[in-house]
Amino acid sequence: MLEIKSIDKPDERRDFPRGHLELVQMTGLVFARATFEPGWRWTESLRDIAGTDLCQVHHNGYVVEGRIRIRMEDGSEQEGGPGDAFVVTPGHDAWVVGDEPCVVFDFAGGMDAYAKAAGS
């Protein structure tokens, strides 16, 4: 099997307050590019959409540009920037640091449910 798709021609785009998500659906992989604008925070932009207090999606990602800070349910937190790869388990909040957009690639597979209303 060989499958190639361009994230510049996504299968789906989801807009949410202060950001958007572009996805390509492939066999065994949902690949996403998320763009978060300055002022974006998961608990402010996506909590009501997800219907949970914290993000419950597992992320394997890579920061392309900008900076993002992630706080886990236990209070631990770290910040990532361009060139940083990350793994984040469910139960976290995240927000853009600074005044430039943060662009993240995510390839964990859980992004098919990200920024979708609970139950849809």
From TrEMBL:
It comes from the Bacteria. Residues 59-106 form the Cupin type-2 domain. InterPro entries: Cupin_2 (IPR013096), RmlC-like_jellyroll (IPR014710), RmlC_Cupin_sf (IPR011051). This is Cupin domain-containing protein. It comes from Actinomadura graeca. The lineage of its organism: Bacteria, Bacillati, Actinomycetota, Actinomycetes, Streptosporangiales.
